[in-house]
Specification:
The structure holds two protein chains of two kinds.
Chain A lengths: L7 H8 L5 H6 L12 E6 L9 H14 L4 E6 L3 H12 L4 H23 L6 E2 L7 H8 L1 E5 L21 H11 L4 E6 L4 E2 L11 E2 L1 E3 H7 L8 H6 L8 E6 L5 H6 L6 E4 L6
Parallel strand pairs in A: 1-2, 1-5, 2-4, 3-4, 5-9, 8-10
Antiparallel strand pairs in A: 6-7, 9-10
Helix pairs in contact in A: 4-5
Chain B lengths: L2 H17 L5 H5 L13 E5 L1 H5 L3 H14 L5 E5 L3 H12 L4 H23 L9 H14 L2 E5 L21 H11 L4 E6 L4 E2 L11 E2 L1 E3 H7 L10 H6 L6 E6 L4 H7 L6 E4 L1
Parallel strand pairs in B: 1-2, 1-4, 2-3, 4-8, 7-9
Antiparallel strand pairs in B: 5-6, 8-9
The chains are: A alpha/beta, B alpha/beta.
Chain lengths: ~280, ~270
Amino acid sequence: MTEELLSALGRALVDGSLTDDEVLEETGQPPAVTILPQANVIKIGGQSFIDRGRAAVFPLMEEIAANLGTHEMIIGTGAGTRARHAYSVGLDLGLPTGVLSVLGTFVSMQNARMIHYLLAKHGIPFIEPVQFAQLPLYLAERGAVVFFGMPPYTFWQQNPAVGRIPPHRTDTGAYLIAEVFGARSMIYVKDEKGLYTADPKKDPEAEFIPRISIAELAELDLPDVVVERAVLELMPHARHCRSIQVINGLEPGTLTAALAGEHVGTIISADGAPA
Amino acid sequence: MSAADGRDRRHHVDSLLMRESLLDKDVMRSTETPVVRMLPHAHVVKIGGRSILDAGRGVVYPLVETLAEVLQTKKLIIGTGGGVRSRHMFSVGLDLGLPTGVLAQMAAADALGTAHILGTLLAPHGVVAIPPEIFGHLLPLFMRAAPGVIFNGVPPYSLWEHPPAIGRIPPHRTDAGSFLLAECFGCKSLILVKDVDGLYDRDPRKHPSAVMIRDIGGRELKQRKLESLPFDRVLLDLLANARLLTQFQIVNGHEPERLAAALDGEHVGTIVHR
Protein backbone atom coordinates (compact mmCIF):
# COMPACT_ATOMS: atom_id res chain seq x y z
CA MET A 1 0.00 0.00 0.00
CA THR A 2 1.44 3.36 -1.02
CA GLU A 3 1.25 6.53 1.00
CA GLU A 4 0.00 8.46 -2.05
CA LEU A 5 -3.20 10.37 -1.41
CA LEU A 6 -4.39 9.80 -4.97
CA SER A 7 -4.09 6.71 -7.15
CA ALA A 8 -2.83 7.09 -10.74
CA LEU A 9 -6.47 7.09 -11.87
CA GLY A 10 -7.32 9.64 -9.21
CA ARG A 11 -4.58 11.94 -10.51
CA ALA A 12 -5.78 11.47 -14.09
CA LEU A 13 -9.35 12.35 -13.06
CA VAL A 14 -8.38 15.34 -10.93
CA ASP A 15 -5.97 16.79 -13.51
CA GLY A 16 -7.34 15.44 -16.79
CA SER A 17 -10.44 16.04 -18.87
CA LEU A 18 -13.55 13.91 -18.41
CA THR A 19 -14.15 14.28 -22.15
CA ASP A 20 -10.84 12.60 -23.03
CA ASP A 21 -11.47 9.03 -24.25
CA GLU A 22 -8.07 7.89 -22.97
CA VAL A 23 -8.91 9.03 -19.45
CA LEU A 24 -12.41 7.54 -19.73
CA GLU A 25 -11.06 4.15 -20.87
CA GLU A 26 -9.23 3.93 -17.54
CA THR A 27 -12.50 4.38 -15.67
CA GLY A 28 -13.92 1.06 -16.87
CA GLN A 29 -11.66 -0.89 -14.49
CA PRO A 30 -11.91 -2.54 -12.07
CA PRO A 31 -15.29 -3.86 -13.23
CA ALA A 32 -18.45 -2.75 -11.45
CA VAL A 33 -19.64 -4.89 -8.54
CA THR A 34 -23.16 -6.34 -8.60
CA ILE A 35 -25.09 -4.68 -5.79
CA LEU A 36 -28.22 -6.90 -5.74
CA PRO A 37 -27.32 -9.92 -7.91
CA GLN A 38 -30.18 -12.06 -6.59
CA ALA A 39 -32.95 -9.52 -7.28
CA ASN A 40 -35.24 -9.53 -10.32
CA VAL A 41 -36.71 -6.34 -11.74
CA ILE A 42 -40.27 -6.76 -13.01
CA LYS A 43 -42.07 -4.00 -14.86
CA ILE A 44 -45.85 -4.22 -15.04
CA GLY A 45 -47.24 -2.42 -18.08
CA GLY A 46 -49.59 0.52 -17.60
CA GLN A 47 -51.85 0.60 -20.67
CA SER A 48 -51.06 -3.02 -21.50
CA PHE A 49 -51.76 -4.43 -18.05
CA ILE A 50 -52.84 -2.30 -15.07
CA ASP A 51 -55.48 -0.41 -17.09
CA ARG A 52 -57.18 -3.77 -17.76
CA GLY A 53 -58.20 -3.84 -14.11
CA ARG A 54 -59.05 -6.74 -11.84
CA ALA A 55 -59.25 -9.43 -14.51
CA ALA A 56 -55.60 -8.94 -15.43
CA VAL A 57 -54.14 -7.59 -12.20
CA PHE A 58 -55.53 -9.93 -9.50
CA PRO A 59 -54.13 -13.18 -10.95
CA LEU A 60 -50.72 -11.49 -11.41
CA MET A 61 -50.75 -10.31 -7.78
CA GLU A 62 -51.41 -13.89 -6.69
CA GLU A 63 -48.56 -15.11 -8.85
CA ILE A 64 -46.20 -12.50 -7.38
CA ALA A 65 -47.27 -13.50 -3.85
CA ALA A 66 -46.66 -17.17 -4.67
CA ASN A 67 -43.09 -16.32 -5.69
CA LEU A 68 -42.28 -14.50 -2.43
CA GLY A 69 -39.64 -16.45 -0.57
CA THR A 70 -38.35 -17.94 -3.82
CA HIS A 71 -37.46 -14.85 -5.87
CA GLU A 72 -36.66 -11.30 -4.80
CA MET A 73 -38.67 -8.84 -6.89
CA ILE A 74 -38.24 -5.11 -7.50
CA ILE A 75 -41.59 -4.25 -9.11
CA GLY A 76 -41.93 -1.13 -11.27
CA THR A 77 -45.13 0.20 -12.80
CA GLY A 78 -45.99 1.75 -16.14
CA ALA A 79 -48.17 4.81 -16.64
CA GLY A 80 -50.68 4.02 -19.39
CA THR A 81 -53.90 5.62 -20.56
CA ARG A 82 -53.98 8.58 -18.17
CA ALA A 83 -50.41 9.49 -19.14
CA ARG A 84 -51.49 9.48 -22.77
CA HIS A 85 -54.34 11.80 -21.89
CA ALA A 86 -52.01 14.11 -19.93
CA TYR A 87 -49.50 14.09 -22.81
CA SER A 88 -52.26 14.97 -25.32
CA VAL A 89 -53.50 17.87 -23.20
CA GLY A 90 -49.92 19.03 -22.57
CA LEU A 91 -48.91 18.81 -26.23
CA ASP A 92 -51.90 20.86 -27.28
CA LEU A 93 -51.01 23.54 -24.72
CA GLY A 94 -47.37 23.62 -25.85
CA LEU A 95 -45.80 22.18 -22.69
CA PRO A 96 -42.15 21.12 -22.92
CA THR A 97 -40.95 17.52 -22.66
CA GLY A 98 -39.65 18.05 -19.11
CA VAL A 99 -43.12 19.02 -17.90
CA LEU A 100 -44.69 16.04 -19.72
CA SER A 101 -42.17 13.90 -17.83
CA VAL A 102 -43.49 15.28 -14.52
CA LEU A 103 -47.06 14.46 -15.62
CA GLY A 104 -46.09 10.92 -16.61
CA THR A 105 -44.42 10.43 -13.23
CA PHE A 106 -47.67 11.23 -11.42
CA VAL A 107 -49.60 8.56 -13.35
CA SER A 108 -46.89 5.96 -12.91
CA MET A 109 -46.95 6.77 -9.17
CA GLN A 110 -50.73 6.21 -9.00
CA ASN A 111 -50.30 2.79 -10.58
CA ALA A 112 -47.47 1.95 -8.16
CA ARG A 113 -49.69 2.86 -5.21
CA MET A 114 -52.51 0.64 -6.56
CA ILE A 115 -50.19 -2.34 -6.98
CA HIS A 116 -48.70 -1.59 -3.57
CA TYR A 117 -52.07 -1.68 -1.77
CA LEU A 118 -52.90 -5.01 -3.42
CA LEU A 119 -49.59 -6.44 -2.15
CA ALA A 120 -49.63 -4.63 1.21
CA LYS A 121 -50.96 -7.63 3.14
CA HIS A 122 -47.68 -9.37 2.36
CA GLY A 123 -45.76 -6.52 4.00
CA ILE A 124 -44.46 -5.16 0.69
CA PRO A 125 -43.61 -1.44 0.69
CA PHE A 126 -43.88 1.21 -2.03
CA ILE A 127 -40.71 3.28 -2.30
CA GLU A 128 -40.04 6.63 -3.95
CA PRO A 129 -36.60 7.42 -5.43
CA VAL A 130 -35.37 8.98 -2.16
CA GLN A 131 -36.14 5.70 -0.33
CA PHE A 132 -33.99 3.46 -2.53
CA ALA A 133 -31.37 3.33 0.23
CA GLN A 134 -33.84 1.17 2.21
CA LEU A 135 -34.54 -1.13 -0.76
CA PRO A 136 -31.98 -3.83 0.22
CA LEU A 137 -33.49 -4.12 3.71
CA TYR A 138 -37.04 -4.42 2.38
CA LEU A 139 -35.94 -7.05 -0.14
CA ALA A 140 -34.16 -9.05 2.54
CA GLU A 141 -37.09 -8.79 4.95
CA ARG A 142 -40.12 -9.01 2.65
CA GLY A 143 -38.79 -10.21 -0.69
CA ALA A 144 -40.25 -7.44 -2.83
CA VAL A 145 -40.75 -3.69 -3.20
CA VAL A 146 -42.91 -1.59 -5.52
CA PHE A 147 -41.60 1.59 -7.20
CA PHE A 148 -42.84 3.88 -9.96
CA GLY A 149 -41.15 3.03 -13.23
CA MET A 150 -40.67 6.60 -14.46
CA PRO A 151 -37.04 7.72 -14.02
CA PRO A 152 -36.96 10.82 -11.75
CA TYR A 153 -35.65 13.13 -14.49
CA THR A 154 -38.65 15.50 -14.30
CA PHE A 155 -37.67 18.87 -15.88
CA TRP A 156 -34.30 17.38 -16.87
CA GLN A 157 -35.90 14.79 -19.19
CA GLN A 158 -34.16 14.95 -22.59
CA ASN A 159 -36.09 15.85 -25.72
CA PRO A 160 -36.69 13.06 -28.21
CA ALA A 161 -35.29 13.46 -31.73
CA VAL A 162 -38.85 13.36 -33.09
CA GLY A 163 -41.94 14.76 -31.38
CA ARG A 164 -42.16 15.78 -27.74
CA ILE A 165 -43.14 12.66 -25.73
CA PRO A 166 -40.49 11.95 -23.05
CA PRO A 167 -38.20 9.29 -24.53
CA HIS A 168 -37.18 7.87 -21.14
CA ARG A 169 -40.32 6.48 -19.59
CA THR A 170 -41.16 3.53 -17.36
CA ASP A 171 -39.51 0.75 -19.42
CA THR A 172 -36.29 2.78 -19.25
CA GLY A 173 -36.59 3.63 -15.57
CA ALA A 174 -37.07 -0.03 -14.64
CA TYR A 175 -34.24 -1.10 -16.94
CA LEU A 176 -31.77 1.36 -15.41
CA ILE A 177 -32.57 0.01 -11.93
CA ALA A 178 -31.82 -3.54 -13.16
CA GLU A 179 -28.54 -2.26 -14.63
CA VAL A 180 -27.31 -0.19 -11.69
CA PHE A 181 -28.02 -2.95 -9.15
CA GLY A 182 -26.69 -5.73 -11.39
CA ALA A 183 -30.01 -7.53 -11.04
CA ARG A 184 -30.47 -11.18 -12.04
CA SER A 185 -33.15 -10.44 -14.64
CA MET A 186 -35.26 -7.72 -16.21
CA ILE A 187 -38.76 -8.92 -17.06
CA TYR A 188 -41.40 -6.78 -18.81
CA VAL A 189 -44.94 -7.94 -18.09
CA LYS A 190 -47.19 -6.91 -21.00
CA ASP A 191 -50.33 -8.19 -22.70
CA GLU A 192 -48.56 -9.73 -25.68
CA LYS A 193 -46.29 -12.74 -25.80
CA GLY A 194 -43.41 -10.45 -26.76
CA LEU A 195 -42.06 -8.80 -29.88
CA TYR A 196 -43.83 -9.15 -33.23
CA THR A 197 -42.90 -7.98 -36.72
CA ALA A 198 -45.82 -5.52 -36.46
CA ASP A 199 -48.34 -4.49 -33.78
CA PRO A 200 -50.31 -7.75 -33.31
CA LYS A 201 -53.31 -5.71 -32.11
CA LYS A 202 -53.61 -4.11 -35.55
CA ASP A 203 -51.99 -6.60 -37.92
CA PRO A 204 -53.17 -10.25 -37.81
CA GLU A 205 -50.24 -11.20 -40.08
CA ALA A 206 -47.71 -10.08 -37.46
CA GLU A 207 -45.15 -12.79 -36.68
CA PHE A 208 -43.82 -13.55 -33.21
CA ILE A 209 -40.05 -13.15 -32.66
CA PRO A 210 -38.87 -15.37 -29.75
CA ARG A 211 -35.28 -14.12 -29.59
CA ILE A 212 -33.41 -11.26 -31.21
CA SER A 213 -30.26 -9.22 -30.75
CA ILE A 214 -30.16 -5.43 -30.65
CA ALA A 215 -28.21 -5.43 -33.92
CA GLU A 216 -30.79 -7.64 -35.66
CA LEU A 217 -33.60 -5.52 -34.26
CA ALA A 218 -31.95 -2.34 -35.56
CA GLU A 219 -31.66 -3.94 -38.99
CA LEU A 220 -35.38 -4.82 -39.07
CA ASP A 221 -36.16 -1.11 -38.43
CA LEU A 222 -39.68 -1.96 -37.22
CA PRO A 223 -42.20 0.89 -37.19
CA ASP A 224 -43.26 -0.16 -33.69
CA VAL A 225 -41.43 -2.09 -30.95
CA VAL A 226 -42.61 -3.67 -27.71
CA VAL A 227 -40.24 -1.78 -25.35
CA GLU A 228 -39.11 1.85 -25.35
CA ARG A 229 -36.39 2.46 -27.93
CA ALA A 230 -34.26 4.14 -25.23
CA VAL A 231 -33.86 0.71 -23.56
CA LEU A 232 -32.51 -0.71 -26.81
CA GLU A 233 -30.11 2.24 -27.10
CA LEU A 234 -28.85 1.83 -23.53
CA MET A 235 -28.40 -1.95 -23.59
CA PRO A 236 -25.20 -2.07 -25.72
CA HIS A 237 -23.48 0.11 -23.06
CA ALA A 238 -24.72 -1.96 -20.11
CA ARG A 239 -22.20 -3.55 -17.75
CA HIS A 240 -24.68 -6.03 -16.25
CA CYS A 241 -28.15 -6.05 -17.78
CA ARG A 242 -27.33 -7.28 -21.30
CA SER A 243 -30.65 -9.00 -21.97
CA ILE A 244 -34.31 -8.48 -21.16
CA GLN A 245 -37.40 -10.65 -21.53
CA VAL A 246 -40.88 -9.45 -22.54
CA ILE A 247 -43.69 -11.79 -21.43
CA ASN A 248 -47.47 -12.06 -21.54
CA GLY A 249 -48.60 -11.60 -17.95
CA LEU A 250 -52.18 -12.48 -18.90
CA GLU A 251 -51.13 -16.13 -19.21
CA PRO A 252 -50.96 -17.71 -15.75
CA GLY A 253 -47.57 -19.16 -14.84
CA THR A 254 -45.60 -17.12 -17.37
CA LEU A 255 -44.08 -14.76 -14.81
CA THR A 256 -43.15 -17.69 -12.55
CA ALA A 257 -41.45 -19.42 -15.47
CA ALA A 258 -39.59 -16.25 -16.45
CA LEU A 259 -38.43 -15.78 -12.84
CA ALA A 260 -37.14 -19.35 -12.94
CA GLY A 261 -35.03 -18.34 -15.95
CA GLU A 262 -37.19 -19.99 -18.60
CA HIS A 263 -37.62 -18.56 -22.07
CA VAL A 264 -41.36 -17.89 -22.34
CA GLY A 265 -41.58 -14.62 -24.25
CA THR A 266 -39.19 -12.56 -26.37
CA ILE A 267 -35.60 -12.30 -25.20
CA ILE A 268 -33.83 -9.20 -26.52
CA SER A 269 -30.09 -9.32 -26.07
CA ALA A 270 -27.31 -6.76 -26.48
CA ASP A 271 -25.00 -9.52 -27.63
CA GLY A 272 -25.41 -11.79 -30.63
CA ALA A 273 -27.98 -14.53 -30.18
CA PRO A 274 -26.30 -17.75 -28.99
CA ALA A 275 -26.60 -20.78 -31.28
CA MET B 1 -54.46 29.09 -37.93
CA SER B 2 -57.88 29.54 -36.34
CA ALA B 3 -58.80 28.54 -32.80
CA ALA B 4 -61.21 26.01 -34.20
CA ASP B 5 -58.33 24.37 -36.06
CA GLY B 6 -56.34 24.11 -32.86
CA ARG B 7 -59.23 22.47 -31.07
CA ASP B 8 -59.73 19.92 -33.83
CA ARG B 9 -56.10 18.97 -33.74
CA ARG B 10 -56.18 18.48 -30.00
CA HIS B 11 -59.02 16.01 -30.26
CA HIS B 12 -57.23 14.26 -33.06
CA VAL B 13 -53.96 13.95 -31.11
CA ASP B 14 -55.94 13.05 -28.04
CA SER B 15 -57.64 10.08 -29.62
CA LEU B 16 -54.46 9.12 -31.48
CA LEU B 17 -52.43 8.78 -28.30
CA MET B 18 -55.26 6.93 -26.60
CA ARG B 19 -55.44 4.19 -29.17
CA GLU B 20 -51.88 4.01 -30.36
CA SER B 21 -48.52 2.81 -29.19
CA LEU B 22 -46.19 5.53 -27.93
CA LEU B 23 -43.43 3.49 -29.57
CA ASP B 24 -44.83 3.99 -33.07
CA LYS B 25 -42.70 6.30 -35.25
CA ASP B 26 -45.66 7.91 -37.04
CA VAL B 27 -47.44 8.60 -33.76
CA MET B 28 -44.27 10.27 -32.46
CA ARG B 29 -44.06 12.54 -35.52
CA SER B 30 -47.62 13.71 -34.84
CA THR B 31 -46.54 15.05 -31.43
CA GLU B 32 -44.15 17.66 -32.85
CA THR B 33 -45.87 20.92 -31.90
CA PRO B 34 -44.59 24.37 -30.79
CA VAL B 35 -43.36 24.70 -27.19
CA VAL B 36 -44.02 27.51 -24.69
CA ARG B 37 -41.17 29.25 -22.84
CA MET B 38 -41.62 29.29 -19.07
CA LEU B 39 -38.75 31.67 -18.22
CA PRO B 40 -37.86 33.52 -21.45
CA HIS B 41 -36.02 36.37 -19.68
CA ALA B 42 -33.82 34.30 -17.38
CA HIS B 43 -30.25 33.35 -18.25
CA VAL B 44 -28.64 30.09 -17.12
CA VAL B 45 -24.99 30.48 -16.11
CA LYS B 46 -22.95 27.40 -15.29
CA ILE B 47 -19.91 28.19 -13.11
CA GLY B 48 -17.19 25.57 -13.47
CA GLY B 49 -16.18 23.61 -10.38
CA ARG B 50 -12.54 22.77 -10.91
CA SER B 51 -11.97 25.64 -13.36
CA ILE B 52 -13.46 28.46 -11.23
CA LEU B 53 -14.77 27.63 -7.77
CA ASP B 54 -11.78 25.45 -6.79
CA ALA B 55 -9.36 28.15 -8.07
CA GLY B 56 -9.60 30.26 -4.92
CA ARG B 57 -10.25 33.83 -3.90
CA GLY B 58 -8.20 35.41 -6.70
CA VAL B 59 -10.56 33.99 -9.31
CA VAL B 60 -13.82 33.69 -7.39
CA TYR B 61 -14.05 37.15 -5.79
CA PRO B 62 -13.84 39.17 -9.03
CA LEU B 63 -16.39 36.84 -10.66
CA VAL B 64 -18.76 37.26 -7.68
CA GLU B 65 -18.42 41.05 -8.05
CA THR B 66 -19.38 40.81 -11.70
CA LEU B 67 -22.32 38.51 -10.92
CA ALA B 68 -23.53 40.96 -8.25
CA GLU B 69 -23.45 43.80 -10.76
CA VAL B 70 -25.24 41.79 -13.46
CA LEU B 71 -27.90 40.68 -10.96
CA GLN B 72 -29.06 44.29 -10.63
CA THR B 73 -30.52 44.16 -14.12
CA LYS B 74 -30.76 40.49 -15.12
CA LYS B 75 -32.31 37.32 -13.75
CA LEU B 76 -29.76 34.52 -13.39
CA ILE B 77 -30.14 30.81 -12.74
CA ILE B 78 -26.65 29.77 -11.64
CA GLY B 79 -25.55 26.13 -11.81
CA THR B 80 -22.33 24.94 -10.17
CA GLY B 81 -19.92 22.13 -10.97
CA GLY B 82 -18.69 19.61 -8.42
CA GLY B 83 -15.01 20.20 -9.18
CA VAL B 84 -12.07 18.37 -7.67
CA ARG B 85 -14.08 16.65 -4.91
CA SER B 86 -16.28 14.95 -7.55
CA ARG B 87 -13.16 13.80 -9.42
CA HIS B 88 -11.74 12.37 -6.19
CA MET B 89 -15.03 10.66 -5.32
CA PHE B 90 -15.17 9.15 -8.84
CA SER B 91 -11.67 7.71 -8.44
CA VAL B 92 -12.42 6.12 -5.05
CA GLY B 93 -15.86 4.91 -6.20
CA LEU B 94 -14.46 3.38 -9.39
CA ASP B 95 -11.74 1.61 -7.42
CA LEU B 96 -14.45 0.13 -5.18
CA GLY B 97 -16.33 -1.10 -8.28
CA LEU B 98 -19.36 1.15 -7.89
CA PRO B 99 -21.58 1.52 -10.96
CA THR B 100 -22.30 4.72 -12.90
CA GLY B 101 -25.69 5.33 -11.24
CA VAL B 102 -24.16 5.26 -7.77
CA LEU B 103 -21.39 7.68 -8.85
CA ALA B 104 -24.06 10.00 -10.29
CA GLN B 105 -26.06 9.85 -7.06
CA MET B 106 -22.99 10.86 -5.05
CA ALA B 107 -21.82 13.57 -7.48
CA ALA B 108 -24.89 15.66 -6.62
CA ALA B 109 -23.47 16.21 -3.14
CA ASP B 110 -20.21 17.77 -4.36
CA ALA B 111 -21.96 20.21 -6.67
CA LEU B 112 -24.42 21.08 -3.90
CA GLY B 113 -21.46 21.90 -1.66
CA THR B 114 -20.09 24.22 -4.34
CA ALA B 115 -23.55 25.76 -4.77
CA HIS B 116 -23.60 26.60 -1.07
CA ILE B 117 -20.08 28.08 -1.27
CA LEU B 118 -21.18 30.43 -4.07
CA GLY B 119 -24.50 31.02 -2.28
CA THR B 120 -22.67 32.28 0.79
CA LEU B 121 -20.74 34.82 -1.29
CA LEU B 122 -23.85 35.98 -3.18
CA ALA B 123 -26.12 36.03 -0.10
CA PRO B 124 -25.71 39.81 0.37
CA HIS B 125 -27.27 40.16 -3.08
CA GLY B 126 -30.29 37.99 -2.26
CA VAL B 127 -29.07 34.92 -4.11
CA VAL B 128 -28.76 31.56 -2.32
CA ALA B 129 -28.48 27.86 -3.15
CA ILE B 130 -31.89 26.17 -3.36
CA PRO B 131 -32.36 22.55 -2.19
CA PRO B 132 -32.68 20.33 -5.31
CA GLU B 133 -35.90 18.69 -4.04
CA ILE B 134 -37.89 21.91 -4.48
CA PHE B 135 -35.77 23.73 -7.05
CA GLY B 136 -37.49 22.77 -10.32
CA HIS B 137 -41.09 23.09 -9.20
CA LEU B 138 -40.62 26.44 -7.43
CA LEU B 139 -38.18 27.97 -9.90
CA PRO B 140 -40.62 30.46 -11.53
CA LEU B 141 -41.63 31.67 -8.06
CA PHE B 142 -38.00 32.12 -6.98
CA MET B 143 -37.24 34.01 -10.18
CA ARG B 144 -40.04 36.46 -9.46
CA ALA B 145 -38.98 36.85 -5.82
CA ALA B 146 -35.18 37.05 -6.12
CA PRO B 147 -32.65 38.40 -8.63
CA GLY B 148 -31.30 34.90 -9.10
CA VAL B 149 -30.92 31.40 -7.69
CA ILE B 150 -28.13 28.84 -7.42
CA PHE B 151 -28.61 25.11 -7.94
CA ASN B 152 -26.26 22.16 -8.11
CA GLY B 153 -25.92 21.70 -11.85
CA VAL B 154 -26.18 17.91 -11.56
CA PRO B 155 -29.39 16.66 -13.22
CA PRO B 156 -31.46 14.41 -10.90
CA TYR B 157 -30.52 11.23 -12.81
CA SER B 158 -28.96 9.60 -9.74
CA LEU B 159 -29.31 5.78 -9.84
CA TRP B 160 -31.07 6.25 -13.20
CA GLU B 161 -27.95 7.70 -14.88
CA HIS B 162 -27.20 6.12 -18.26
CA PRO B 163 -24.21 3.77 -18.52
CA PRO B 164 -21.73 5.55 -20.83
CA ALA B 165 -20.19 4.04 -23.97
CA ILE B 166 -16.68 4.24 -22.48
CA GLY B 167 -15.76 3.70 -18.84
CA ARG B 168 -18.10 4.40 -15.94
CA ILE B 169 -18.07 8.19 -15.34
CA PRO B 170 -21.65 9.58 -15.37
CA PRO B 171 -22.17 11.22 -18.80
CA HIS B 172 -24.80 13.75 -17.65
CA ARG B 173 -22.87 16.08 -15.38
CA THR B 174 -23.32 19.73 -14.47
CA ASP B 175 -23.03 21.22 -17.97
CA ALA B 176 -25.75 18.79 -19.10
CA GLY B 177 -27.94 19.56 -16.08
CA SER B 178 -27.66 23.29 -16.82
CA PHE B 179 -28.41 22.74 -20.51
CA LEU B 180 -31.49 20.58 -19.87
CA LEU B 181 -32.83 23.11 -17.38
CA ALA B 182 -32.35 26.03 -19.82
CA GLU B 183 -34.06 24.03 -22.59
CA CYS B 184 -37.04 22.94 -20.49
CA PHE B 185 -37.68 26.42 -19.08
CA GLY B 186 -37.05 28.12 -22.42
CA CYS B 187 -34.38 30.42 -20.98
CA LYS B 188 -32.78 33.25 -22.94
CA SER B 189 -29.24 31.89 -22.95
CA LEU B 190 -26.84 29.34 -21.51
CA ILE B 191 -23.30 30.45 -20.70
CA LEU B 192 -20.65 28.02 -19.50
CA VAL B 193 -18.01 29.81 -17.41
CA LYS B 194 -14.66 28.00 -17.62
CA ASP B 195 -10.94 28.75 -17.29
CA VAL B 196 -10.27 28.87 -21.05
CA ASP B 197 -11.29 31.52 -23.59
CA GLY B 198 -13.43 28.99 -25.42
CA LEU B 199 -13.14 25.84 -27.49
CA TYR B 200 -9.79 25.03 -29.11
CA ASP B 201 -8.88 22.51 -31.79
CA ARG B 202 -6.57 20.91 -29.20
CA ASP B 203 -6.28 21.20 -25.41
CA PRO B 204 -4.66 24.67 -25.03
CA ARG B 205 -3.10 23.66 -21.72
CA LYS B 206 -1.07 20.94 -23.43
CA HIS B 207 -0.60 22.55 -26.84
CA PRO B 208 0.36 26.26 -26.85
CA SER B 209 -0.20 26.34 -30.63
CA ALA B 210 -3.86 25.30 -30.27
CA VAL B 211 -6.24 27.44 -32.32
CA MET B 212 -9.46 28.79 -30.84
CA ILE B 213 -12.74 28.01 -32.64
CA ARG B 214 -15.06 31.01 -32.18
CA ASP B 215 -18.21 29.59 -33.69
CA ILE B 216 -19.15 26.04 -34.68
CA GLY B 217 -22.20 23.86 -35.28
CA GLY B 218 -22.79 20.94 -32.94
CA ARG B 219 -22.91 18.41 -35.74
CA GLU B 220 -19.63 19.59 -37.25
CA LEU B 221 -17.99 19.60 -33.83
CA LYS B 222 -19.11 16.03 -33.23
CA GLN B 223 -17.69 14.96 -36.58
CA ARG B 224 -14.32 16.56 -35.81
CA LYS B 225 -13.89 14.15 -32.86
CA LEU B 226 -11.64 16.51 -30.87
CA GLU B 227 -9.67 14.63 -28.20
CA SER B 228 -11.15 16.74 -25.41
CA LEU B 229 -13.87 19.38 -25.03
CA PRO B 230 -14.28 22.09 -22.37
CA PHE B 231 -17.84 20.84 -21.66
CA ASP B 232 -19.74 17.54 -21.16
CA ARG B 233 -19.63 15.68 -24.48
CA VAL B 234 -23.32 14.74 -24.18
CA LEU B 235 -24.19 18.43 -24.74
CA LEU B 236 -23.74 17.86 -28.48
CA ASP B 237 -26.50 15.22 -28.45
CA LEU B 238 -28.76 17.39 -26.31
CA LEU B 239 -28.19 20.38 -28.60
CA ALA B 240 -29.13 18.32 -31.66
CA ASN B 241 -32.57 17.63 -30.13
CA ALA B 242 -33.11 21.08 -28.61
CA ARG B 243 -36.27 22.99 -29.55
CA LEU B 244 -35.76 26.24 -27.59
CA LEU B 245 -32.08 26.55 -26.66
CA THR B 246 -30.37 26.61 -30.03
CA GLN B 247 -26.87 27.63 -28.86
CA PHE B 248 -24.61 28.08 -25.85
CA GLN B 249 -21.47 30.13 -25.25
CA ILE B 250 -18.26 29.18 -23.40
CA VAL B 251 -16.50 32.13 -21.74
CA ASN B 252 -13.40 32.58 -19.61
CA GLY B 253 -14.41 33.28 -16.02
CA HIS B 254 -10.88 34.38 -15.15
CA GLU B 255 -11.83 37.54 -17.06
CA PRO B 256 -15.27 38.20 -15.54
CA GLU B 257 -16.10 41.16 -17.79
CA ARG B 258 -16.48 38.59 -20.56
CA LEU B 259 -19.36 36.98 -18.66
CA ALA B 260 -21.08 40.37 -18.38
CA ALA B 261 -20.58 40.95 -22.10
CA ALA B 262 -21.87 37.49 -23.00
CA LEU B 263 -25.01 38.12 -20.92
CA ASP B 264 -25.47 41.31 -22.98
CA GLY B 265 -25.53 39.08 -26.04
CA GLU B 266 -21.95 39.71 -27.16
CA HIS B 267 -19.80 37.03 -28.74
CA VAL B 268 -16.75 36.92 -26.46
CA GLY B 269 -15.95 33.21 -26.28
CA THR B 270 -16.98 30.20 -28.34
CA ILE B 271 -20.56 29.82 -29.49
CA VAL B 272 -21.71 26.29 -30.27
CA HIS B 273 -24.96 26.35 -32.20
CA ARG B 274 -27.39 23.66 -33.27
